[in-house]
Design a protein that fits this description.
The protein is mainly β. The chain folds into three domains: 3-121, no CATH class; 123-277, 7 Propeller (Methylamine Dehydrogenase, Chain H); 373-500, Methylamine Dehydrogenase, Chain H. 3% of the residues lie in helices and 38% in strands. It has helices spanning 54-57, 72-83; strands at residues 3-8, 10-12, 16-19, 28-33, 41-46, 64-67, 87-91, 115-121, 124-126, 133-137, 143-147, 167-170, 174-178, 184-188, 206-211, 215-220, 225-229, 247-252, 256-261, 266-270, 288-293, 298-302, 307-310, 332-337, 341-346, 351-355, 373-378, 382-387, 392-396, 414-419, 423-428, 433-437, 455-460, 464-469, 474-478, 491-492, 498-499. A hairpin with a 4-residue loop joins strand 19 and strand 20. The longest helix has 12 residues, at 72-83. The relative contact order is 0.09.
Length: 500
């Protein structure tokens, strides 16, 4: 998600504009992801010149003076340079997008209209623990892919269409990207959603994408939904299409989708084996505010913080029945999942699990240690919890990352955790990375440890990891068939420079 930075552009004697982000005159909070996918944020501060305060201005030497005739390109580049950001979009105080290369003067930046908003678009890596490929969404809105060529790692056929990309989602073997004006571009295995020609005329004004094992669902600006891919796993929503309106978000198991509407109602479709039938709990699905999916089941968080779960037979062993822990599921604000278990994070920073014990539903074994949790993440069969003190606890199948004994002392000052299908990676505050779990799935990062310095964030695929460094370079490890070797791709750094 893009970060918003509000700053003031002050005209000096009606001729120049001063951009200064290093003084302490006025501090503005810039919210950027703190790596952890939870609510925590890393705060950066910058300062601005108060409009019309020449006495204040005289105290600070401007970093750079831009004439009124300066182009918008120069302003964007100056912000990118000063904030070490990705690409930047400028907006006027009245909401106008200041695009193109025109001058500030022509854009209407005057003495009475000089508050601009810059939207920062950092480069980021997209991956999923069920997808054997990665996609790098670059700062300029273009995309680079690598990994299994047949399952999304080769986007050459649509490369020219991948511009102004704002979001990317992946199924088991295909990718879909939202490009400029809300259009959608797909690539990868056609039987897994990589071919969308049959619905392209409907894919206009798309604002969000979600994917099951082999199908995609797109939420339109008007709240409608368009689906494509394998009809057996949610690619055909025709029988519930009249119910798909005012949709705000969608979750997916391996073979079914659940859409949350603005009125708090939930609509499901897809393969019944993967919980597409929610009729048995529809009377309980009232005032739903969040939906999460494991591989086989759904869990919905209600407005009061309680949880309703379901699958095809309300099987406790798959996570579809949470009655045994119902009394503990209060004040829930986030849910993570493995293939057959759920872990709920409560507002008091405690964790409650249910489902198949072999898939991580066993947190009661060390319940007293699972306190002050800020984020939870799942591999296929294990969970990892990031604590507020920067430590990490893991449980579940040891072969899938459920055992941290050999790296426990290294798991300190952790700011982000990522997962592949059977391993975890933790980014520490000093920019180094710790990994554990199945070595074949990225649990062994020893071959690239020397390169893992100044890491910004890590993303997992099916059996590999990719790390984005501060300078925009990408380091990968794990199975080459899952993207563990990005070779000598020309990657665009976060600062807009090509690197090998």
């Amino acid at each position: 998600m893009a970060s918003l930075l509000q700053f003031r552009v002050a005209l000096l004697s009606g001729r120049s504009i001063a951009l200064e982000f290093a003084s302490t005159l006025v501090q503005i909070k810039v919210l950027a992801a703190k790596y952890a996918a939870c609510c925590a944020t890393r705060i950066r501060t910058c300062s601005v010149f108060p409009l019309g305060c020449s006495s204040e201005l005289s105290r600070v030497e401007p970093v750079r003076l831009l004439p009124r005739t300066a182009s918008l390109v120069e302003v964007r580049r100056e912000i990118e340079r000063r904030l070490h950001a990705g690409s930047v979009s400028l907006f006027a105080a009245d909401g106008r997008h200041l695009a193109g290369a025109g001058s500030l003067e022509n854009a209407g930046v005057t003495d009475g209209n000089c508050t601009l908003t810059a939207t920062i678009h950092p480069a980021r890596i997209i991956g999923h623990r069920e997808t054997p490929a990665f996609a790098l969404l670059q700062a300029d809105g273009s995309v680079v892919t690598w990994g299994s060529r047949d399952y999304g790692g080769d986007s050459s056929a649509v490369q020219q269409q991948l511009t102004q990309v704002s979001q990317i989602r992946s199924s088991h073997g295909a990718f879909a990207a939202i490009c400029g004006k809300g259009r959608v571009v797909t690539w990868g295995a056609s039987h897994l959603g990589g071919q969308s020609s049959s619905v392209q005329h409907l894919l206009q004004g798309v604002r969000h994408l979600e994917a099951s094992h082999g199908a995609f669902a797109a939420i339109l600006d008007n709240g409608g939904v368009v689906t494509w891919g394998d009809s057996d796993v949610g690619g055909d929503s025709s029988h519930v299409q009249d119910q798909l309106f005012e949709v705000t978000c969608i979750a997916a198991t391996f073979g079914a989708f659940a859409a949350l509407r603005m009125d708090g109602h939930v609509v499901t479709w897809g393969d019944p084996f993967y919980s597409s039938d929610s009729s048995m709990v529809q009377d309980k699905l009232v005032n739903v505010c969040q939906i999460k999916a494991s591989g086989r089941s759904f869990a919905a968080v209600l407005g009061d913080g309680s949880v309703v779960a379901w699958d095809r037979r309300k099987l406790q062993s798959c996570g579809g029945d949470c009655r045994d822990v119902e009394d503990m599921l209060k004040g829930v604000h986030f849910i993570a999942a493995t293939d057959q278990a759920f872990a709920a994070l409560r507002c008091d920073a405690r964790v409650v699990t249910w489902g198949n014990k072999r898939y991580g539903a066993e947190s009661r074994l060390f319940e007293n240690r699972l306190q002050d949790v800020q984020h939870i993440l799942g591999s296929d069969r294990a969970f990892a919890a990031l604590l507020k003190n920067g430590r990490v606890l893991a449980w579940g199948d040891p072969k899938y990352g459920g055992d941290t004994r050999f790296v426990r002392d290294e798991l300190q000052d952790v700011v982000q955790i990522a997962s592949s299908s059977a391993a975890f990676a933790a980014v520490r505050g000093d920019g180094t990375v710790v990994t554990w779990g199945d070595p074949e799935a990225g649990g062994d990062s020893l071959p690239v440890q020397a390169k893992l310095r100044q890491v910004q964030h890590v993303t997992g695929s099916f059996q590999a990891f990719a790390a984005m460094l501060v300078d925009g370079q990408v380091v990968t490890w794990g199975s080459a068939e899952s993207g563990g070797d990005c070779g000598d791709l020309q990657l665009l750094s976060a600062h807009g420079q090509n690197r090998t």
